[in-house]
Every structure is written in C-alpha cells, then in structure tokens.
Design a protein that fits this description.
This protein has 205 residues and is α+β, with helices and mostly antiparallel strands. The chain has a single domain (2-204), classed as Aminopeptidase (3-Layer(aba) Sandwich). It has 6 helices and 7 strands. Strands 1-2-3-4-5-7-6 form a 7-stranded mixed β-sheet, sandwiched between helices. The protein is globular. 31% of the residues are buried.
Length: 205
C-alpha cells in the first residue's frame, strides 16, 4: 500500500469503476452517491482542491490502482491535534490487510513525521462498522456528541475516538505485528487479531 495525494486525473477513473453502483459505500459519508461519472469527477476535484483538508489516495499494490481515499482534517497545529476522516474504502479492499496498512501509514505519519499529540476518529454513532474499526485500530472511545450535525437532512450523533502520542508506541507495535506476513496462514487467514494485539499491548503498559 502506498499513499499519494489525491489526483483526479490519475485516480478518478479506477475509483469510479470500483464504486459505481455500490450505493452502500456512501451510506455514512457526507455526500450522496454520485449518479454520473461527471458528478463523481466533480466530487473528486473538489476534494483534491479542498483548502483545509489533505486528501490521500490509497494505491493498492496488488490491484495496481487507486482503491480508496481518506483525508486529514480539523488540523489544529497550535495544539498538535488532527483528525482522519472522509474515508472511502472501495469494495476491493474493505476488510483487507491493505486497508489496515493504509490506516497504519496515516497514523505513523501523524505521530512520527508531523509530531502531533492527538489523532482523532469521528463517525456517525449509528455507524457500527466504523466504531468497531476505530476500536480495532487502537483508538479509544471518548463519548458521543448528541445532535452534533444534520447530514443529508437527518440528525447525526457523533461518536468520538482518539489515539494519543503516548499510545502510539504500543499501537505501532501491534500494527506491525499484525501486518507481518508471519501473522497470516497460507490461506491468508490472520493468526492473531489486531484488536487482541492492541489489548495485549495495553495490558503491558
């Protein structure tokens, strides 16, 4: 997995082909499913040019193409806090090692390259898969902001999760142990779950 700046010219085609007709991908995102290629291209262009967010494309080595995107947002430089969000995993990489590796690389950049002290994950409180993913990746649940937003004409209560710089050494070790090829059998099944590795690391602290 490699992360690259989102480039509409280079990445829109493969992303569109992967999500076309898959409306469920957009269920908890801020935008409704684009109904045409032109709408999709316009959306990707807006994201790539966003003045306050940094969008990254997930380039999957196995597929040889763009397989998703995510962004850094709500950047608070004085307090060294940043959020990961607007995550789109195409069906090709959902629940795969590649998706987990992308999240590992984004967290590593936040703590090791940018030197931030707080990394946030927020999602609709109804989005059970996103909440499970946050916990699995090592984010700690911090509570629910009730009636936080109105999205697509409906109320959104927002679940907040965060990872701190003091958490990162243990989280990094868990990520790297999980991503190690030795953690998978010949059929690609994991030997140890990431959630279990994170739990074990937490008990040792």
């Amino acid at each position: 997995m490699t992360l690259l700046p989102l480039d509409p010219d280079a990445h829109a085609q493969s992303l569109y082909e992967e999500v076309r007709g898959r409306d469920e991908v957009w269920l908890y995102l801020f935008e409704p499913p684009p109904s045409t290629r032109a709408e999709f291209d316009a959306l990707i262009c807006r994201k790539a040019a966003h003045p306050e967010r940094t969008y990254l494309t997930m380039m999957d080595h196995t597929l040889g193409q763009a397989a998703g995107y995510a962004c850094y947002l709500r950047v608070d430089e004085p307090h060294r806090s940043i959020e990961v969000g607007d995550i789109l995993f195409t069906p090709a990489i959902q629940r795969t090692r590649a998706a987990t590796e992308a999240m590992y690389l984004m967290a590593k950049h936040v703590f090791e390259d940018l030197g931030y002290r707080r990394y946030e994950w927020k999602c609709n409180d109804l989005n059970a898969p996103s909440k499970r993913a946050a916990s699995r990746l090592g984010f700690q649940f911090e509570g629910v902001f009730r009636q936080h937003m109105i999205i697509k004409g409906r109320n959104r209560d927002t679940a907040w999760f965060a990872m701190l710089d003091s958490d990162w050494p243990a989280r990094k070790q868990a990520f790297e142990r999980w991503l190690d090829p030795a953690n998978f059998d010949a059929a690609g099944r994991q030997r140890a779950a990431l959630s279990a590795l994170n739990h074990a690391q937490g008990e040792r602290r």
